[in-house]
Automatic annotation (TrEMBL):
Record key words, sorted: Oxidoreductase
Record-annotated Gfo/Idh/MocA-like oxidoreductase N-terminal domain positions: 25-148
Residues annotated as domain GFO/IDH/MocA-like oxidoreductase: 163-308
Compositionally biased tracts (Low complexity): 4-17
Annotated region described as Disordered, given as residue ranges: 1-17
Organism in which the protein naturally occurs: Streptomyces albidochromogenes
Listed name of the protein: Gfo/Idh/MocA family protein
Entry keyword annotation includes Oxidoreductase: yes
Amino acid sequence: SQTETDTGTAAEAGAPAGVRSPALGVGMVGYAFMGAAHSQGWRTAGRVFDLPVRPVLAAVCGRDAVAVRAAADQHGWAAAETDWRDLIARDDVQIVDICTPGDSHAEIAVAALEAGKHVLCEKPLANSVAEAEAMTAAAERARARGQVAMVGFNYRRVPAMTYARRLVAQGRLGALRHVRVTYLQDWLVDPDFPLTWRLQREHAGSGALGDLGAHIVDLAQYLAGEPVVGVSAMTETFVRSRPLPAAAPAGLAAGAAGAGRGAVTVDDAALFTARLASGALASFEATRTAAGRKNALSVELNGERGSLAFDLERLNELSFHDHTEPAVSSGFRRILVTEPQHPYLEAWWPPGHALGYEHTFVHQARDLLHAIATGTDPEPSFADGLRVQRVLAAVEESAQKNAIYTPVLP
Ligand code: SOE
């Protein structure tokens, strides 16, 4: 059964004044870009949403004692640890939030689940299918004990995406024919961007594929409500060696280059077509070398009865075309997804007062806490993360065979 404490005060937990729901301590491993984003989610969720359990930012963990203490102060964590095993062992930590590179996800997640903790793990779930399988098996065993494990595909929690899923599930698009998704960034255009962990297979598992492709595979499967069953893929590494970094840079910042160069062991870009279980066709493009594209995630779904289109750079908007309307007056119309009836919006600002990237992490924290409090299966679960991992593996296999169609499951 889940361990709950009620030792925190409402002020500590960020609950609205006068509200006292049980507190759950969060321990976060990693504090770079994703750690900062998750901290924002944990700090804000209880101030905006009426939560059945409220998060307390108990401790953050990183290897450098001085830097992790500074991160704790900056992001509002009560304590700092330098060994993730000590973080997991803390009595005031009931949720372990993993924001480290992929090479440590499996070890930390399995240990945390076995120690009786709930787990939130950044995407991609792991660096290999075998690791993702072990994590999913550990999550299933923990589920029987009342614990919850969720993978951080935060873009499901853009209100327009959650609403799009609702429209698809209601049949407003009818049978899907096409799913078209792209995720484009440009921080690797510069050939002198240093060789950080995201460019090393042993740390990141893959390149644009796991970093960005994982998001769009999850989004496509979530929005369509069905799995990818096979892929035909090409990947490319345009810049094959890069300067070694002088020091570990934070987030996507280039940081200073040191002496010497090292080999890039992951893809810069991945392109693939796919079949979904229903027979719908999909196309995916993930790259970190698309000059001028900063965080450009786009989705289009075409069905028998209509279409939906979305662009993350205009994330409060969803375009919808209802093909059952008379052709003379139909066409794509812009829905401003800021009404209180839209997902998550009941707790935010009045209509038209837009949300942004950071809010997806607030929604993620909210949904995890609801799953814990109500004992419901979390979404996306580790099993969802594993489904994505299998698609990534099939993409790599297909790319190695020169775009030969590769089934996701044998
Ligand atoms: C880097 O490409 C990155 O930080 C991804 O790792 C995140 O998952 C994405 O949300 C933003 O870009």
